[in-house]
Amino acid sequence: MMRNQQTAHRQIFSVSEITRNIRFILEESFSGIWVEGEITNFKSHTSGHMYFTLKDETAQIQCVMFRAENQKLDFELKEGLSVLCFGRVSVYPIRGQYQLYMERIEPKGVGALQLQFEQLKAKLKDEGLFDEAHKKEIPYLPARIGLITSIDGAALRDILNVLDRRFFSVNVIIHPVPVQGKGAAESIASAIGDFNELKNADVLIVGRGGGSLEDLWAFNEEIVARAIYNSAIPVISAVGHEIDFTIADFVADLRAATPSAAAEIVLPLKDKLVLEIMDLKSRAFQAFTGRLKFFRQALKPLVESRGLRDPLGIFKIKSQKLDELKKNLEINFGTFLKFKTEKFEGLMGKLEALGPLAALKRGFSVSLKLPEEKLIRSVCFLKKGDWVKTKLREGFFVSEVKAVSN
Prior knowledge:
alpha/beta, CATH 2.40.50.140, Rossmann fold, 5-stranded mixed beta barrel, 5-stranded parallel β-sheet, 14 strands, elongated
């Protein structure tokens, strides 16, 4: 009986009730709070939600930042980053663990813009957008200069004043854009694309006057960096003062310390150029006259030579020598021909003395077997009935073989 009474006075909670009550207590006590710590075990889920652990020297807490909130971040969360987090503490009922639900995160010790600048700089550098191999050469004397800047800014007036003072006849095409505030980066990138599409400039100057990091931020946007990198027209970045550096400066083909410096870089001083041309003209004339004098001195011995004074004289000598050679050839050839003729006649005499005709003249005869008139040297070549042609000193006769005797 006693045990039943004790049981009747117990208050029994379900796990869900306990978890829900703890969540209410935590959210009531720890809502709208700032928490400082270091990010570890960072994971970005395919859903877009971010999960990580926030820790200090002695403790840690699980954190989650849903996609709707983390899309507003101006920098990249990563392992080891010290941050200040704003949100609430609650319970994840499925695991029964408490965790921080983040609404805002700020980098600790480094401003969000500066951190974003450093992260984008490192990213683009790794991709090769800052490589010197990709830098295009700035034309020495461009016929058309494209300016991308604010129509109302001091930078435009400074650039135009310098250009007019250095080379007043140059063509300048101005594409006015906002250089700070929402949409400025997109306008700058679009202007660069327009110049490339129209191909109406030889070089582009992109920039503005000085200002804070926030004022210059349009030139730190990734869309502007990639537009400069993809530009087929060389780009000079002229943003802020000499101490100001932007992402555009690192990507551009050339960085100018100020807008005025960009104008001085892009065009030579006309008066100085005229002096240089006159100096080159004078030096070229001196070099030409010097070479002309050298060639005249080199030609003088040739002009005074006998060959040029009497160009036909050499042919007269050669003609006389040719006559002598011809005469000698006639004499030598006649002697040679006489010698050969005498030698030929002697050989012919010997041949006639040894030939059959000489024997015929001495009373001998020559018998030839018919019909082929083959010389008969022995009776072995004859038989009864053969016909024989016998040649005498004068004429011949034909006879039939009646008998052969050896």
